[in-house]
C-alpha cells in the first residue's frame, strides 16, 4: 500500500517590533538592522508629551528616514481612562499640573516609563493585526530592546530579562553583538546621521544641570510652574531634584534662579500667580459639561503664550 507523504507544517515567523526610544542605543540598533536587511516589521515610539524639543526634532528626522526605507513607524500615546481631578489630561506634563504632583522619579519611584511608554505600546500591539495573528498561532511577538553591553544597561537587562511575558519575547541584539554605547555612537555617525540627544522629559528628576542650562525659556518657565504647583503638597522632597546636595539644590527653580536662566521677576510672578490661575481654571472647567470641557493642554498653551490673565 502506497504511503501518504509526510508534511511538515511551518508557521510564519512571528512579527518583530522595535521599541524605539529615539536615543543612541535604539537608533544604532535600527540603523544596523536596516543595513543587514533585517528591518523590523514595526517600529514603535511612545510620546509622553514632554520630551525635550531637540528630541522631537530628531524623531521627525528619523520618521522621514524610516519612511524613505519603507519601515512602518507608529507613535503612540497614553490615553487615561479615569481622572482624579479635572480637566482631563493627555500628557505627563498636564498630568502633574492637574494633580499638583511631581513625576514619580522625583518621589522615589520609577513608574513614569511604565505608564507613559510601555503601557501605550502594549495597548497598540494588542490591537495590531499581525500580533493578534501570531498570538492565535501560539507564538510570541518578538520585541527588540536597545540595551547595549555597557555596565549600566547590564543592570537594566538583568532586571528586564527576568520577566516572563506570555505575549512578548524580548530580544537584545546590541548585547548579542557585544556593542557598547561608544560602538553605537560610531555606527550612527558612520550612517551619516547626527547622534541623538539624550531622550527624557524636560522636567525629569534625572535631568542634569547642563541639560537644564540648554533648555529654552518656555521649558524653564514650566519647570518653575510644576514645582510651585506641587509645593504645598510636598512633605519629604523639596522639588524635582528631590533633596539638596552639595552639587545641586532639591528644586530646579533654585538652580534656574542661581544661574540666572530666567529673570527673577518672572520666576516670582510665575510662583505667585500661575498656581492660583490654574486652580481657577480647573474649578471653572469642572462646571462645564464633560463633552465641552477644555483640556489642561489648552491652559498650558495659554501659559506658554504669555497670555494668562495675571500677566
What characteristics describe this protein?
disordered C terminus, alpha/beta, 13 helices, 5 strands, single chain, 311 residues, 45% helix, five-stranded parallel beta sheet
Q: Overall pLDDT, averaged?
A: 90
- The radius of gyration over CA amounts to 23 Å
- Percent range for β-strand residues: 5-15%
* Spatial shape: globular
Number of strands: 5
CA(first)-CA(last) distance: 95 Å
Q: Give me the secondary-structure category.
A: alpha/beta
The level of helicity is 40-55%
- Which spans of ≥5 residues are poorly predicted at pLDDT below 50? 307-311
Number of helices: 13
**Can you summarize the main beta sheet?**
5 strands, parallel
Neighbour order of strands in the largest sheet = 3-2-1-4-5
Question: Can you write the helix and strand succession as a string?
Answer: EHEHEHHHEHEHHHHHHH
Describe the protein in words.
A 5-stranded parallel sheet has the order 3-2-1-4-5. It contains 13 helices and 5 strands. Helix 1 (24-35) packs across helix 8 and helix 10 (217-230) packs across helix 12 (264-285). The radius of gyration is 23 Å and the shape is globular. It is of the alpha/beta class and 311 residues long. Helix content is 45%, strand content 7%. Residues 307-311 have low confidence and may be disordered. The termini are far apart. Strand 2, helix 2 (53-68) and strand 3 (73-76) form a beta-alpha-beta unit.
Amino acid at each position: 500500500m502506497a504511503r501518504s507523504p509526510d508534511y511538515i507544517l511551518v508557521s510564519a515567523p512571528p512579527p518583530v517590533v522595535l521599541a524605539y526610544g529615539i536615543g543612541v542605543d535604539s537608533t544604532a540598533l535600527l540603523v544596523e538592522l536596516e543595513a543587514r536587511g533585517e528591518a523590523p516589521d514595526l517600529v514603535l515610539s511612545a510620546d509622553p508629551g514632554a520630551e525635550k524639543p531637540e528630541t522631537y526634532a530628531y524623531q521627525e528626522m528619523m520618521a522621514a528616514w524610516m519612511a524613505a526605507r519603507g519601515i512602518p513607524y507608529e507613535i503612540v500615546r497614553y490615553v487615561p481612562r479615569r481622572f482624579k481631578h479635572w480637566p482631563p489630561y493627555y500628557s505627563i506634563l498636564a498630568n502633574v499640573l492637574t494633580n499638583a504632583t511631581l513625576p514619580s522619579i522625583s518621589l522615589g519611584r520609577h513608574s513614569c516609563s511604565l505608564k507613559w511608554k510601555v503601557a501605550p505600546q502594549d495597548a497598540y500591539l494588542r490591537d495590531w493585526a499581525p500580533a493578534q495573528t501570531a498570538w492565535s498561532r501560539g507564538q510570541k511577538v518578538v520585541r527588540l530592546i536597545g540595551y547595549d553591553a555597557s555596565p549600566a544597561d547590564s543592570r537594566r537587562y538583568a532586571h528586564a530579562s527576568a520577566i516572563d511575558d506570555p505575549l512578548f519575547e524580548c530580544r537584545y541584539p546590541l548585547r548579542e553583538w557585544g556593542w557598547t554605547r561608544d560602538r553605537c555612537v560610531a555606527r550612527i555617525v558612520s550612517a551619516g546621521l547626527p547622534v541623538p540627544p539624550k531622550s527624557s522629559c524636560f522636567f525629569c528628576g534625572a535631568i542634569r544641570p547642563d541639560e537644564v542650562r540648554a533648555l529654552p525659556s518656555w521649558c524653564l518657565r514650566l519647570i518653575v510652574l510644576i514645582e510651585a504647583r506641587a509645593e504645598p503638597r510636598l512633605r519629604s522632597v523639596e522639588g524635582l531634584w528631590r533633596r539638596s546636595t552639595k552639587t545641586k539644590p532639591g528644586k530646579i527653580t533654585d538652580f534656574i534662579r542661581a544661574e540666572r536662566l530666567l529673570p527673577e521677576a518672572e520666576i516670582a510672578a510665575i510662583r505667585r500667580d500661575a498656581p492660583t490661575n490654574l486652580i481657577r481654571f480647573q474649578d471653572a472647567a469642572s462646571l462645564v459639561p464633560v463633552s465641552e470641557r477644555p483640556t489642561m493642554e489648552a491652559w498650558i498653551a495659554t501659559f506658554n503664550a504669555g497670555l494668562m490673565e495675571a500677566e
